[in-house]
Amino acid sequence: MADLPNCETLLLNLEAGVLNVTLNRPDSRNAMSLAMVHELRAVLEGVRHDANVRALVLRGAAGHFCAGGDIKDMAGARAKGGDAYRELNRAFGAMLEEFQAAPQVVIAVLEGAVLGGGFGLACISDIAIAAESCKFGLPETTLGILPAQIAPFVVKRVGLTQARRLALTAARFDGLEALHLGLVHYCESSENLDVRLAEVLDQVRKCAPGANAQTKALLLATETQELGALLDSAAEQFAAAVTGAEGIEGTMAFVQKRAPKWAL
């Protein structure tokens, strides 16, 4: 079962196998504080082994997704010296790693500001739905700093050529350009965001949760593992899946022309 933490910077709502996680610091356009990083990591830990949680939906309160890192946190770290800056920055990167590896389908619903760290969060989502009016950007270099932890995820998402342009110009762009870049999968009017989200969640529910989790891990492994070894491992997983509970149920449902149990 999900073991959800008490949160001050997040709103959590678990319903019908979907955990809605809302970044809730509207006064700062949901800027990413260290406290929020810790709470997001605690949420991930709480649902990591709960197969009943099928999807995580990330969004922001009051019309913005996330305007980047919290400048107040950076100012506070300044008094503690370089180690504090390093630890603050690396904690955010660790959270991105954990989100990317989450067994659930991670869906980002993007509105308003999607800047800096918010841009990084968008890049680790499995499915991203953006409002046409979104304002995306990597503003770090205009502040004299660098997108240290998000850079690898941005490159994986949009490719090195586009990542160089975006990071080295701090260019702002909207949801439609994000769609063209491959940063997001859908670009919608603000009124249609929830309609598209409902459609995506219906699609996710048709997929077996265990098979989804293993498939996600397999896809991510293509970036790091040698091909032959990866295919050997995949063959073993396939054989186990075919004879496992989900494989048997999926096959029987197909033969009997009915929906499998996880889709009901």
Automatic annotation (TrEMBL):
<dbReference type="InterPro" id="IPR001753">
    <property type="entry name" value="Enoyl-CoA_hydra/iso"/>
</dbReference>
<comment type="similarity">
    <text>Belongs to the enoyl-CoA hydratase/isomerase family.</text>
</comment>
<dbReference type="InterPro" id="IPR014748">
    <property type="entry name" value="Enoyl-CoA_hydra_C"/>
</dbReference>
<protein>
    <submittedName>
        <fullName>Enoyl-CoA hydratase/isomerase family protein</fullName>
    </submittedName>
</protein>
<dbReference type="InterPro" id="IPR051683">
    <property type="entry name" value="Enoyl-CoA_Hydratase/Isomerase"/>
</dbReference>
<dbReference type="InterPro" id="IPR029045">
    <property type="entry name" value="ClpP/crotonase-like_dom_sf"/>
</dbReference>
<dbReference type="Pfam" id="PF00378">
    <property type="entry name" value="ECH_1"/>
</dbReference>
